[in-house]
Specification:
The complex is a heterodimer. By secondary structure, chain A is of the alpha+beta class. Chain A contains 1 helix and 11 strands. Chain A has a 7-stranded antiparallel beta sheet. A 4-stranded antiparallel beta sheet of chain A has the order 7-6-5-8, with no helix packed on it. The two termini of chain A are about 35 Å apart. Chain B has a single domain, classed as Roll (Nuclear Transport Factor 2, Chain: A). Chain B is built from 4 helices and 6 strands. Chain B has a 6-stranded mixed beta sheet, with helices on one face. In chain B, helix 3 packs antiparallel against helix 4. The longest helix of chain B has 23 residues. The chains are: A alpha+beta, B alpha+beta. The interface between A and B is medium-sized, with 25 and 18 residues.
């Protein structure tokens, strides 16, 4: 086995690398695999990505950002095994509605250049609470009721999808 | 060096002792988490499972619930349903276990909160379910209420949670 001229240094480097990788990929950049078509065509089924867990330490989530949302309560030192991946289209206090497949925020048409698939959604206005964000996928070609979307509390937003 | 070795040995013995303690005297939190894990195994079916195995699984499945247990399910794919009592739960389980070729159920990210009385507990988790050997799966947030009845932790209520409202 190749360990170099200074095996102790090599071992130390391996140890540091292992610890750094553990810390980075458990607490900073969470590796994820996209499953499903709800974020097509922006993110494809079975693609690999990362969630920046520290993205919202300095600022709050913004409209247009793609975020990961946890489904269960947080556990110390353990990242969730399952998360939703959705795009924020409305921030706290805003009103969301859909008309002829277009999203309206407080009655104003929302420009969504990332939408490439046809949509015919119609839905009455929904009010986000003071701590709620409205999240939805980019693939709105299925009926409104079949698409997992809605208001989510800030505490459930885990981080921002990196790529 | 000798002292360092002794300290390391002591740490290993202390760790092993703690582990043994948790195995022999598990906390209520550990017991309910283990229950959730074994419930998932019971609710899972292999394609090769015969009728006798499936009937036994239904029987085992019922054993996790109290006699007055309630299952409240409200998901877009299935609509809103409430099952009350073991008989209704048994009927549902028998129906599912007969119709499905295979079923894989996992309860992930489980967190348990034990009540101050140490006689009740709540478990929050994410269910991941795939049917008939499909690679696709559904996820659903769930809450379980446990109660210690005659020395055994039984589910008194299981309900789906709307993560996105």
């Amino acid at each position: 086995m190749l360990v170099g001229r200074r095996p102790r240094t090599t071992l130390l480097r391996i140890f540091v690398l292992a610890v750094a990788s553990f810390l980075v990929f458990n607490f900073v950049l969470l590796p994820i695999r996209v499953v499903g078509i709800s974020m097509e065509p922006t993110y494809h089924d079975r693609s690999i990505n990362c969630v920046n867990h520290l993205a919202y330490l300095s600022h709050e989530p913004k409209r247009g950002e793609v975020v990961s949302i946890r489904l269960s309560e947080p556990r110390w030192f353990a990242r969730p095994k399952e998360m939703f991946m959705k795009r924020i289209i409305a921030v706290p206090g805003e009103n969301v509605s859909f008309h002829e497949g277009h999203a309206y925020i407080n009655g104003q048409l929302l420009d969504e250049p990332y939408l490439k698939l046809p949509c015919d959604w119609e839905h009455a206005p929904m009010q986000c609470g003071p701590d709620q964000y409205y999240v939805v996928g980019d693939n709105r070609s299925m009926p409104f009721a079949d698409h997992t979307q809605g208001r989510v509390e800030r505490s459930r937003i885990l981080g921002k999808v990196l790529l | 060096m000798k002292i360092a070795l002794r300290i390391a040995l002591l740490a290993v013995i202390a760790g092993a002792g703690f582990w043994l303690w948790t195995v022999w005297f598990p906390s209520p939190q550990m017991i309910v988490l283990k229950k959730i894990s074994s419930l998932a195994a019971t609710a899972s079916l292999n394609a090769g499972d015969g009728n006798i195995t499936r009937a036994a699984k239904v029987s085992n499945f019922i054993g996790y619930f109290s006699t007055d247990a309630e299952i409240v399910c409200d998901v877009p794919e299935l609509g809103a349903h409430t099952l009350s009592g073991r008989d209704e739960i048994r009927q549902m389980a028998a129906g599912v276990f007969t119709q499905m070729t295979s079923l894989k159920v996992q309860f992930l990210d489980a967190v348990a909160h034990v009540g101050a009385d140490k006689e009740s507990a709540r478990v929050s988790c994410t269910a991941r379910v795939s049917a008939n050997d499909s690679k696709d799966f559904g996820v659903q947030e769930l809450n379980f209420q446990f109660k210690k009845i005659d020395g055994d932790w039984l589910i008194t209520r299981a309900e789906t949670v709307k993560t996105l409202q």
